[in-house]
């Protein structure tokens, strides 16, 4: 099954581009499952205004807005099967082309790296 996975470095106050842009999956079919996993390499203490957050939508349906990205834990593998890094599991419900959006935002005072892994089910 297809996977999109990468690291993105975010300076203080910056946001990533949509990680689905310029991939074969910037539009997905109805019934496609997306499993989103993400982790911050470094501390992400959850104090309001000092976090790395993410926004995840498909079309007009918002699944996460300013949700906190979990911190990467030493000794815990970062894979699709690691439930502690799973942020969302959804099925696209639009009848035609569905447009997913996943953006990370760094609200801390330093530069941090976000790892992401997106499982995409077989499309009909």
Q: Spans of 5+ residues with little confidence (pLDDT < 50)?
A: none
What is the subunit arrangement here? single chain
User: What global shape is seen?
Assistant: globular
Strand order across the largest sheet: 1-7-2-5
- Count of discrete alpha- or pi-helical segments spanning 4 or more residues: 0
How much strand content do the residues show? 35-45%
| Rg calc | 14 Å
What's the helix-strand series?
Answer: EEEEEEE
Query: What is the number of beta strands?
Result: 7
Query: What fraction, in percent, of the residue positions are helical?
Result: under 10%
Describe this structure in words.
The chain is mainly beta. It is 0% helix and 44% strand. The chain has a four-stranded antiparallel β-sheet with strand order 1-7-2-5, with no helix packed on it. Strands 4-3-6 form a three-stranded antiparallel β-sheet, with no helix packed on it. The mean pLDDT is 90.
Give a quick set of tags describing it:
single chain; 124 residues; mainly beta; 4-stranded antiparallel sheet; 3-stranded antiparallel sheet; 7 strands; globular
Describe this structure in a few short sentences.
The protein has 124 residues and is mainly beta. Helix content is 0%, strand content 44%.
How would the blueprint of this fold be written?
Layout (H helix, E strand, L loop, with lengths): L2 E8 L22 E9 L10 E7 L2 E8 L17 E6 L8 E7 L5 E9 L4
Antiparallel strand pairs: 1-7, 2-5, 2-7, 3-4, 3-6
């Amino acid at each position: 099954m297809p996977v999109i996975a990468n690291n993105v470095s975010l300076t203080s106050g910056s946001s990533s581009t949509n990680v689905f842009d310029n991939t074969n999956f910037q539009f997905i079919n109805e019934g496609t499952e997306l499993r989103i996993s993400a982790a911050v390499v470094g501390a992400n203490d959850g104090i309001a205004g000092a976090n790395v957050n993410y926004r995840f939508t498909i079309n007009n349906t918002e699944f996460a807005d300013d949700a906190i990205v979990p911190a990467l834990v030493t000794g815990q593998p970062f894979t699709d099967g690691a439930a502690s890094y799973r942020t969302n599991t959804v099925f696209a419900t639009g009848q035609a082309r569905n447009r997913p959006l996943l953006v990370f935002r760094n609200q801390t005072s330093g530069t941090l790296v976000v790892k992401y892994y997106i499982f995409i089910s077989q499309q009909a």
